[in-house]
Write a structure and sequence with these properties.
Blueprint: H1 5-15, E1 26-40, E2 43-56, H2 77-96, E3 102-103, E4 112-114, E5 120-122, E6 129-130, E7 136-138, H3 151-156, E8 158-160, H4 161-184, H5 190-202, H6 220-232
Antiparallel strand pairs: 1-2, 3-6, 4-5, 7-8
Length: about 240
């Protein structure tokens, strides 16, 4: 990842202090200076061209974006729940467990990487901010990605802890029902949309459907048990 000077410094300073299983781990950085000849006021001058790159841990399964399928494809419920839980834990760490909380401000499937066990790690902190005690700021700088930004930012450029929470909600819906299913949420009443999602999961041709045969989502205890199974690889 090549970055200009200010972006490189910001991302390096943010990442070097982050230690959490659901946050991408910074291994180190590379920096190389190259002397180049450029023209200035019609005269050749020698300048320094700086090449910088951050080095992260290798995550075998790439970004979450390429794994987002509809309900009947790809991950089963246990895998999707484990990813959702990991994202929530990583975001909780950034918002509540650091001395100076960090707002990511560009949370989206492309910035969530999956390791060899399909566990999620939040990545790409180039736009992140330290909000401080006031927890709300106004900015004129472009932030985030369209579709993942909350209404108060789109309208008034207000950033707060709610920014990442809104983005997380969009991602959770996409994990649950895929990109096509998410697009239906804009034009469907919440209760009807939930029924449609339940119906899709009940019709899925694998053991996931057992959780949806009674027309409800799994209870918190069922999801807790399923998550333990995924992590330990054993029945509880």
């Amino acid at each position: 990842m090549d970055l200009d000077g200010s972006a490189f410094t910001r991302e390096f300073n943010n990442l070097i202090k982050l230690k959490h299983p659901n946050i991408v781990r910074l291994i180190g950085f590379c920096s190389e200076d190259e002397k180049v000849i450029i023209e200035c006021d019609g005269k050749p001058v020698t300048a320094t061209d700086m090449h910088r790159a951050l080095c992260f841990e290798y995550l075998q399964n790439g970004s979450l974006e390429k794994h987002l399928y509809e309900e009947h494809q790809g991950f089963d419920w246990q895998q999707r729940y484990t990813i959702i839980k990991g994202l929530c834990m990583g975001l909780k760490y950034l918002h509540m467990e650091l001395e100076s909380p960090i707002q990511h401000l560009d949370l989206k499937p492309e910035n969530i990487l999956l390791d060899n066990n399909m566990l999620p790690k939040i990545a790409d902190f180039g736009l992140s901010r330290l909000l401080g005690e006031e927890n709300t700021k106004k900015t004129i700088s472009p932030l985030g990605t369209l579709g993942y930004c909350p209404p108060e930012f789109i309208k008034d450029q207000i950033i707060s802890i709610k920014f990442d929470i809104f983005s997380l909600g969009v991602i959770i819906i996409k994990i649950m029902c895929g990109s096509t299913g998410y697009s239906r949420a804009y034009t469907t009443r919440p209760s009807k949309f939930i029924r449609q999602v339940h119906k899709k999961w009940r019709e899925r041709p694998d053991n996931t459907r057992v959780y949806f045969t009674r027309k409800r989502l799994p209870t918190s205890e069922e999801m807790r048990r399923d998550s333990i199974e995924v992590h330990r690889g054993e029945k509880v």
